Amino acid sequence: MARNSDGTKRTAILDAAVVEIARHGYHQTTVAMIARRAGVADGTIYLYFRNKEEILFSLFERAMGRFISEGRSQVDQETTAIEKLRRIVELHLTLVGKDRDLAIISQVELRHSLHFMDQLSRSQVGEYLAIISQVVAQGMEEGSFRKDLDPIFASKAIFGVLDEMATDWVLSHRNKRLESQAKAVTDFLLGGLSV
Amino acid sequence: MARNSDGTKRTAILDAAVVEIARHGYHQTTVAMIARRAGVADGTIYLYFRNKEEILFSLFERAMGRFISEGRSQVDQETTAIEKLRRIVELHLTLVGKDRDLAIISQVELRHSLHFMDQLSRSQVGEYLAIISQVVAQGMEEGSFRKDLDPIFASKAIFGVLDEMATDWVLSHRNKRLESQAKAVTDFLLGGLSV
Amino acid sequence: MARNSDGTKRTAILDAAVVEIARHGYHQTTVAMIARRAGVADGTIYLYFRNKEEILFSLFERAMGRFISEGRSQVDQETTAIEKLRRIVELHLTLVGKDRDLAIISQVELRHSLHFMDQLSRSQVGEYLAIISQVVAQGMEEGSFRKDLDPIFASKAIFGVLDEMATDWVLSHRNKRLESQAKAVTDFLLGGLSV
Amino acid sequence: MARNSDGTKRTAILDAAVVEIARHGYHQTTVAMIARRAGVADGTIYLYFRNKEEILFSLFERAMGRFISEGRSQVDQETTAIEKLRRIVELHLTLVGKDRDLAIISQVELRHSLHFMDQLSRSQVGEYLAIISQVVAQGMEEGSFRKDLDPIFASKAIFGVLDEMATDWVLSHRNKRLESQAKAVTDFLLGGLSV
DNA sequence: CATGAATGAGAATTCATTCAT
DNA sequence: CATGAATGAATTCTCATTCAT
Q: Which residues of D are less than 8 Å from C83 in CB distance?
C-alpha cells in the first residue's frame, strides 16, 4: 500500500490521484490506475468518493485549503500591507513550487471545464482573492497603496500575475525554483512598469 | 476543386466546433455534434482534420493568428511604448470580449492537458509574448519604463493580468463588457500598487 | 476467484466464437455477436482476450493442442511407421470431421492473412509436422519407407493431402463423413499413383 | 500511371491490386490504395468493377485462367500420363513461384471466407481439378497408374500436395525457388511412401 | 469516360460504476 | 469495510460507394 501521511485510505487515494493525474492528465487517468497506485481495489474508491470527478474536487479543496489557511496566517504575521503582499507572493510561489505534480494539477488539470472552473471560482478561489483584496484595501487605508484602485480588481490582477508565473513554471521544464521569482513579482506589483 | 481551396467547409466546421465546445466542453462535444451543426457528414470532418484534437488546435491557431497579426498592426500604429501597451491591452480585451464562445474556448477548453498547453505555449503564445516584451524593451530604452525589469518577465506578468481578466469575465455571468476594464488594467500595469 | 480459475467464461466465449465465426466469417462476426451468444457483456470479452484477433488465435491454439496431444498419443500406441501413419490420417480426418464449425474455422477462417498464417505456421503447425516427419523417418529406418525421401518434405506432402481433403469436405455440402476417406488417403500416401 | 501490359485501366487496376493486397492483405487494402497505385481516381475503379470483392474475384479469374489454359496446353504436348503429370507439377510450381505477390494472393488472401472459397471451388478450381483427374484416368487406362484409385480423389490429393508446397514457399522467407521441388513432388506422387 | 469530395453506416474498444461475495 | 469481476453505454474513426461536375 502506498505510504501516506495519516494512513487513511482516503489520503492514499488522493495522493495517488495527484501523481497519476499530473502524469497522464485527468482524462487519461483511469480510476483503476489511481486504485492500483493507492493499493486499494477499484471499488474501494467509491467508498470514499462519489465519482471520479469528486476526486479532482477533493484534490483541489485539499490544496486550496492550505493556500487559504497559510495565507491567512502569513498575512496575520505582518502589519503593513506591503509586507503582507510580499508574504502572499512568497507563499503562493513557494506552495506551488514545492510539488510539481500538484502544480500541474492546479495550473492545468483543474481547469478542465467551464462547469468545473465555475464551481472552483465560486468557492475557495473567491476566499483566496478576498484575502488579497483585504490587503489591498488596507494598503489604501494606510496610504501606501494608490487610492484610485478597486481592491477587487487589484486582487484579480495580482492573482493573474501569480498564476501566470506558476503556469509558466509548470510548462517550462527548467529547474529554476519558482519562488526565486518572488522579489521580481512583488516589485512589479508594487511599482508597475513606469519609472 | 482543390481541397479547402476556399475553406468554406473547413471554416464551417471550425465555426460549429466553437459553438459546441463552448457550450458543452471539449470532452462532452462529439464529432457528430460538430458535424451536424456544420451541416456536413461525420466523415467529412476527417477530410479536413486528422482527428478531433486537431480541430481544437486549429481553433486555437485561427484565434491566435488574429491576436498576433492585429497585435502587431496595433503596435505599429503607435510610437511610444506606453501607447503601444495601451493598444495591446485594449485589443486583447476587445478580441476576447467580442465572442464569448471563443473566449470560453481560449480561457478554459484550450487548457485541457499539459500535453496540449505545452504545444500551445511553444508556438503562437510565445510569439504573442514576444510582441509584448518588445514593447517593454522599447519603453525601457525610451526611458518611460523602469530599467530594472526583465522584459520577458514583464511580458508574462502583463499577459497574466490580461488572461485573468479574461477568465474572470468568462466565469462571471454578468454582462459588463470586458473591454471596459482596459483603462484600469493599463493603469495598474503602468503604475503598480504603490503610491 | 482468480480470473479464469475454472475457465468457464473463457470457454463459453471461445465456444460462442466458433459458432459465430463459422457461420458468418471472421470479419462479419462482431464482438457483440460473440458476447451475446456467450451470454456475457461486450466488455467482458476484453477481460479474457486482448482484442478480437486474440480470440481467433486462442481458438486455433485450443484446436491445435488437441491435434498435437492426441496425435502423439496415437502414434505412441503403434509400433510400425505404417500403422502410425494410418493412425495419424484417421485422427486428422476424424478430428476435423467431428465438428463442422471448427473445421470451417481451421480450413478457412484461420487463413485470413499472411500475418496470421505466419504466426500459425511457426508455432503449433510446425510441431504437428514434426510428429509426422518423425514417423516418416522411422519408416525409412525400418525399411518400410523409401530411403530417397526427405522426411520434412514428405510430412508437408502428407499434410497437404490431409488438408485438401478437409477443405474439400468443408466446401462440399454433402454429408459423407470425412473419416470415410481415411483408407483411400493412407493407400494413396503409401502407394502413390504408379502401379 | 502504373505501367501495365496492354495499357487498359482495368489491367492497371488489377496489377495494382495484386501488389497492394499481397503487401497488406485484402482487408487492410483500401480501394483508395489500389486507385492510387493504378494511377486512377477512386471512382474510376467502379467503372470497371462492381465492388471491391469483384476485384479479388477478377484477380483470381485472371490467374486461374492461366493455370487452366497453360495446363491444358502442357498436357496436350505430352502423350503418357506420367509425363503429363510431370508437366502439371512443373507448371503449377513455376507459375506460382514466378510472382510472389500473386502467390500470396492465391495461397492466402483468396481464401478469405467460406462464401468466397465456395464460389472459387465451384468454378475454375473445379476445371483445374478436372484436367488433373483426366490425366489420372488416362494413366489408369494406360496401365501406368493403379486401377484402384478414384481419379477425382487422386486429383484432390495431387492438388493438395501442390498447394501445400506453394503455401509453404510463400510462408517461408527463404529464397529457394519453388519449382526446384518439382522432381521431388512428382516422385512422391508417383511412388508414394512405401518401398 | 473520369474525377474525387462527400457520405454515413458500422464496429472495436474503453472505463466509470455496481454489487454479490 | 473491501474486493474485483462484470457491465454496457458511448464515441471516434474508417472506408466502400456514390454522383455532381
A: none
Q: How far apart are the first and last CA of chain B?
A: 64
Alpha-carbon torsion, ordered D33, D37, D38, D40, to 10 deg: 70
- With CA atoms as reference, the chain C residue closest to D29 would be C113
Would you say how long chain A is, in residues? Answer: 195
Which part of chain D has CATH 1.10.10.60? Answer: 1-49
Spatial contact of C88 and C94, defined as CB atoms under 8 Å apart: no
- Overall CATH class of domain B53-193: mainly alpha
Longest dimension (CA), chain A: 61
Region for residue A174 given its phi and psi (left: phi exceeds 0; alpha: psi -120 to 50; beta: otherwise):
beta
Set of cell numbers at residue D110: 483468396
- Please name the residues in contact with B122: beta carbons below 8 A apart, sequence gap of 6 or more: none
> Distance (Å, rounded) from C-alpha A30 to C-alpha D85?
65
CA end-to-end distance (rounded Å), chain A: 58
Contacts of A40 (CB under 8 A, 6+ apart): A1, A9, A12, A13
Buried b (16+ CB within 10 A) or exposed e, A117-133: beebbeebbeebbebbb
List the beta bridge partners of residue D194. C145
D16 CA to F20 C1' distance (Å): 28
For B1-49, CATH gives 1.10.10.60
Spatial contact of D193 and D184, defined as CB atoms under 8 Å apart: no
Place of cell 498436357: D75
Are B87 and B146 a contacting pair, CB within 8 Å? Answer: no
Helix-helix angle B151-171:A151-171, to 10 degrees = 120
Beta strands in chain C (DSSP E): none
Per residue in C69-111, pLDDT tens? 998 999 999 999 999 999 999 999 999 999 999 999 999 888 8
Q: Which nucleotide is nearest to C42 (CA to C1')?
A: F8
Q: Longest C-alpha distance within chain D, in Å?
A: 61
Tell me the C-alpha distance between A123 and A61, whole Å.
Answer: 9
C178 has a pLDDT exceeding 60: yes
Residue pLDDT, tens place only, D10-20: 999 999 999 99
For A194, list phi and psi in degrees, rounded to 5. -70, 160
> What single letter denotes the amino acid at residue C93?
L
User: A65-69 long-range contacts, Cβ below 8 Å, gap at least 24?
Assistant: A65/A124, A66/A95, A67/A91, A67/A92, A67/A95, A67/A124, A67/A128, A68/A124, A68/A127, A68/A128, A68/A131
Report the distance from CA of residue A44 to the C1' of nucleotide E19 in Å, as an integer: 12
Task: Extract the C-alpha cell encoding C18.
Answer: 466458433
C1 CB contact with strand F at below 7 Å: yes
Domain with CATH 1.10.357.10 in chain A: 53-193
Residue A113 to residue B118, Cβ atoms within 8 A: no
pLDDT of the residue at B121: 67
Specify the 3-state DSSP secondary structure of D150: coil
- Do the Cβ atoms of D153 and C181 come within 8 Å? yes
Residue linked to cell 496446353: D73
